[in-house]
Amino acid sequence: MLLAVLRHPLRFLFIDPWARIDARDRSARVGKVSARTATLVTCLTAALMLVTLRFLVMDPTFQGQVAQGTIDAAYALSQPLGAWLDPYHRLLLSLAWVAGSVTCYFVLPALVVRLVFGLKLSDFYLTPRQYLQHLPFYALLFLPVGLAVLGVAQTPGFQAHYPFYDHADGWQDQVVWELGYALQFFGLEFFFRGFMLRGVVAELGAMGVMVMMIPYTMIHFGKPLPECLGAILSGLVLGTLAMDTKSIWGGVTIHVAVAWLMDAAALYLKAHAAS
After folding, report:
1. How far apart are CA 83 and CA 87, in angstroms?
2. Are 13 and 240 in contact (CB under 8 A)?
3. What does the CA dihedral 138, 144, 150, 153 come to, rounded to 10 degrees?
4. Taking the chain, what is the end-to-end CA distance rounded to the nearest angstrom?
């Protein structure tokens, strides 16, 4: 497999997989609805979820209300519980973003899958069918990205954005944050590489990857330029792999590994500079 990638990268990454996808997955229906209706529902749902993320979930006021509401609820249940949770207000702000992201990326699209399409979530690339046999290829994909992260970690642009959670009072809340961060990436991969791709493949075939890649790139606006440009390529590669293998788990693995490496590099440099 790795030799084939090195010899004919475009054929291995795009040409052959897209031909397989078009021959195998284009059809007249997606569960209970027609292929065209599924495409319309998928695109409209995706647009609404992205608007909700931008104007509600990412709103600091919303995050503050969720965080303070959680603390107030804890005090109402138990004074000691509220007193224990109170110092973690900043962590709760970040976890409010995680909860909102998972709701928009996974929970609400999953309801569309079940109630509108009448399909199982496993039909939307949640099975690890070919994930394990492609692990060497995912490792090959991660290697240059990981090296690039280490290469840019000392630049001002990188250090201005990472670590994403920069208020840890100890290792406990940092671990909680990193687990929540990973959960958000699961939701993101399901949304872009599962829900969107499976929802449009019957009508658009492999060209659904191009439809997904545009909003996926746009959610990186505001991050460093290399990360935005990398999102174009990663969107195409991970989207093609998810469609071809019918599994999002390779993308989840790479996304979480890169995110944790970014945070680890930023935290290391921050600690080194303080010492």
Report:
1. 8
2. yes
3. -100
4. 45
Q: How far is CA 216 from the centre of its chain?
A: 9
Mean pLDDT of 141-157: 85
- What CA–CA distances, in Å, run from 78 to 68, 73, 90, 118, 182? 15, 9, 21, 42, 30
Q: For 29, which DSSP code? A: E
Bridge partners (DSSP) listed for residue 223: 221
Query: Distance between CA 45 and CA 47 in Å, rounded?
Result: 5
What element of type H or E holds 158? Answer: helix 156-161
Contact (CB, 8 A) for 39 and 203? yes
Three-state DSSP at 126 gives strand
Q: Which domain, by its residues, includes 184?
A: 2-274
DSSP structure class, residue 125: T
Q: How far apart are CA 264 and CA 154, in angstroms?
A: 12
Query: CA 144: distance to chain centroid?
Result: 19
List of residues 6+ apart from 195 with CB closer than 8 A: 42, 45, 46, 109, 110, 112, 113, 124
CA distance 91 to 173: 7
The encoded tokens of residue 260 equal: 């944790």
Cα–Cα dist 134/245, whole Å: 9
In which element (H, E) is residue 133 found?
A: none
* pTM over the 0.85 mark: yes
* Number of structural domains in the chain: 1
| Tens of pLDDT, residues 107-120 | 999 999 999 999 99
Distances (CA, A) of 84 to 74, 78, 87, 178: 9, 10, 7, 20
Q: What's the number of CA atoms in the CB half-sphere (13 Å) around residue 252?
A: 20
SS3 state of residue 224: coil
What value does the mean pLDDT of the chain take? 91
